[in-house]
């Protein structure tokens, strides 16, 4: 089966245009393939030849940069850059066209500004004359940054309207903004608040998330007389972080599973073992969604890939349509706390680099298991209750069917084992473990089950994964630029002193954090929130003596609620698209589940052993 992800088919184009589109896709496919194969080759050479590939880590890290840049351009090409405001979708006619011209014009101007910042950054790097590997100057690869931002700017202008008049007006808006900023004689110290106001307006009108974050960073650096090249520098440093390649590789493994037939086989297993219980369909939904989300990174792929399979299961069990819709939408982010989910990895990276923490992926993975099980159990419990008279089992347990389902899904059920054993056994780094997992998932779906055709399907699946990763890294990289300004302006210290002066109890502080993060979840996506908010809150939590692991899980559990909170909860949009329901109906269906999960978050917050027992025990 194939996840129904909104995209366009390049076969509808012809001639040179189709060739260009396929060439762009091929860059992402080849880069992801190299990211997967190089760490595997490194493991083999280290094992059998007692030597590895020179600078292989740097090569893989810069391939991640390439995937991020080209994937971001593909997201702009497919008009799938994540936006904060739903206002543009509610506007009609000329008002919608006007909003698109203004928001995309501002967005294109910000992208051109990022091109300038990138060129300044590369000029400084070129003077250092550093080599990446095999005699390749590092600045050659860094040139992907300005090229990528320029491509995004051009596509934002092109997609701003159907008519050439609208495209021309968008280009004029972008040119006017750039001209005023460059030659308007504006006093940056006086005008930066007004520029932030215009950015806020563009965000409300539909500007992408990365434009909001990068625009804020650029304006703040400009307004305080600092070099805007820092934004490009931080984007580069995050994209080439030594742990970051594990994110696209684990996500790639999830895409192989979601796009193959693994969904049906895993559902069959859980139905065989839990379908005979009271409320079995609800239990199956919670478990299957948690399994897939742990690999797809809570990206919404779970809803898109499994929604068409699980909704008929719930409806045939006579679940009310609203209850089924709410359960599926809520379960789509359940695996967020289970290893090797993307937010867990990202939190460790950001906390260690921007909040001076000393967390390890191993600790974070163990810490998330207990709270993750709690949220899955609460979701299943509510699903059972919401089924009303459907709680009676649909069939009796059949040992033969259970065994047959296990045999049919044996390779998929071993995916988490492969990931965790390769990582925790010590013979592979996190990046190498993610490469092993991706290759294993690829083999299960192409060789063992033959659900995916190597020539026909793999390029499509890998392109889709690269597009998702590109959109995410685009946000994360520029968000780190904004974080740098906040830290440089001493905002965390000032905020920490103010909070500790007003609040003396760690319990009151944690309650305030939960309320604050609920608001953050309503306004920001999880990736931006991790990069921007963690450096502000994590140092304050340490002043109250809160364990960094415990606080990290509290943060991520609150962000899990963010997938369900309007107006920008990603699961709400994807569920509305997948099940063809109005947003208002999806929100009403999710509200009871949102309250239940809030109770779970409070339990996680005020019961530290739930988080800390397992990593402490495994550490011993």
Model description:
It contains 29 helices and two strands. By secondary structure, it is mainly α. Strand 1 (131-133) and strand 2 form a beta hairpin. The longest helix has 36 residues, at 93-128. It is globular. The model is unreliable at 1-8 (pLDDT under 50).
Percent helix: over 70%
Task: Please provide the count of β strands.
Answer: 2
Q: In the residues, how many domains can be counted?
A: 2
Class computed from helices, strands and strand pairing: mainly alpha
Distance between the termini: 44 Å
Let me know the largest β-sheet: 2 strands, antiparallel
- Enumerate how many helices there are, as a single number: 29
Strand composition percent: under 5%
Name the shape in a single word: globular
Radius of gyration: 24 Å
Order of strands across the widest beta sheet? 1-2
The low-confidence runs, each spanning 5 or more residues with pLDDT under 50, are 1-8
The quaternary structure here is: single chain
Mean pLDDT: 85
Give structural attributes.
single chain, 2 domains, disordered N terminus, globular, 620 residues, 29 helices, mainly alpha
């Amino acid at each position: 089966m194939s996840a129904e992800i909104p995209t366009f088919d390049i076969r509808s184009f012809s001639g040179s245009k189709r060739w260009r589109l396929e060439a762009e896709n091929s860059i992402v496919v080849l880069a992801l393939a190299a990211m997967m194969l190089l760490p595997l080759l490194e493991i083999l050479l280290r094992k059998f030849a007692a030597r590895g590939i020179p600078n292989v880590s740097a090569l893989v890290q810069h391939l991640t940069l390439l995937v991020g840049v080209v994937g971001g351009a593909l997201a702009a090409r497919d008009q799938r850059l994540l936006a904060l405001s739903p206002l543009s979708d509610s506007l009609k006619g000329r008002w919608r066209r006007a909003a698109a011209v203004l928001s995309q014009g501002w967005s294109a101007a910000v992208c051109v500004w990022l091109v300038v910042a990138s060129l300044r950054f590369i000029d400084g790097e070129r003077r250092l004359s550093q080599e990446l590997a095999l005699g390749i100057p590092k600045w050659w690869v860094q040139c992907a940054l300005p090229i990528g931002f320029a491509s995004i700017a051009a596509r934002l202008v092109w997609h701003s309207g159907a008519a050439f008049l609208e495209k021309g007006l968008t280009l004029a808006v972008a040119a006017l903004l750039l001209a005023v900023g460059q030659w308007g004689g504006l006093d940056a110290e006086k005008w930066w608040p007004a520029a932030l106001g215009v950015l806020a307006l563009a965000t409300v009108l539909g500007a992408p998330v990365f434009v909001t974050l990068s625009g804020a960073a650029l304006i703040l650096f400009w307004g305080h007389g600092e070099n805007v090249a820092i934004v490009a520098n931080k984007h580069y440093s995050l994209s080439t972080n030594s742990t970051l390649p594990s994110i696209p590789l684990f996500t790639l493994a999830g895409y192989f599973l979601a796009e193959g037939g693994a969904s049906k086989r895993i559902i069959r297993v859980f139905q065989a073992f839990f379908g005979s219980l009271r409320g079995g369909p609800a239990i199956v939904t919670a478990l299957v969604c948690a399994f897939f989300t742990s690999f797809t990174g809570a990206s919404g792929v779970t809803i898109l890939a499994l929604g068409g399979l699980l909704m008929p299961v719930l409806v045939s069990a006579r679940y009310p349509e609203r209850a089924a819709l709410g359960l599926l939408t809520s379960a789509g982010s359940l695996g967020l706390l289970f290893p090797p989910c993307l937010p867990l990895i990202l939190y460790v990276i950001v906390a260690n680099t921007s909040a001076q923490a000393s967390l390890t992926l191993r600790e974070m993975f163990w810490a998330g298991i207990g709270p993750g099980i709690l949220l899955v159990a609460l979701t299943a419990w509510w699903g059972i209750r919401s089924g009303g008279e459907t709680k009676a089992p649909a069939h009796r347990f059949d040992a033969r069917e259970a065994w047959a389902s296990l045999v049919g899904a044996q390779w998929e059920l071993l995916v988490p084992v492969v990931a965790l054993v390769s990582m925790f056994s010590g013979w592979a780094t996190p990046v190498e473990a993610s490469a092993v997992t991706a290759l294993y998932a690829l083999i299960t779906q192409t060789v063992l089950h033959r659900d995916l055709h190597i020539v026909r399907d793999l390029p499509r699946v890998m392109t889709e994964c690269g597009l998702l990763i590109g959109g995410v890294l685009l946000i994360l990289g520029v968000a780190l630029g904004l974080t740098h300004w906040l830290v440089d302006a001493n905002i965390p210290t000032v905020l920490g002193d103010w909070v500790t002066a007003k609040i003396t109890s760690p319990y009151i502080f944690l309650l305030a954090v939960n309320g604050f993060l609920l608001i953050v979840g309503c306004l920001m996506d999880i990736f931006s929130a991790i990069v921007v908010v963690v450096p502000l809150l994590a140092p304050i939590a340490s002043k109250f003596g809160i364990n960094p692991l415990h606080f990290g899980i509290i943060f991520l559990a609150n962000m899990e609620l963010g997938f369900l909170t309007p107006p920008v909860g990603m699961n709400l949009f994807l569920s509305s698209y997948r099940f063809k329901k109005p947003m208002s109906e999806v929100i009403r269906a999710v509200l009871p589940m949102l309250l239940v999960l809030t109770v779970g978050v409070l339990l996680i917050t005020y019961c530290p052993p739930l988080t800390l027992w397992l990593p402490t025990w495994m550490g011993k």
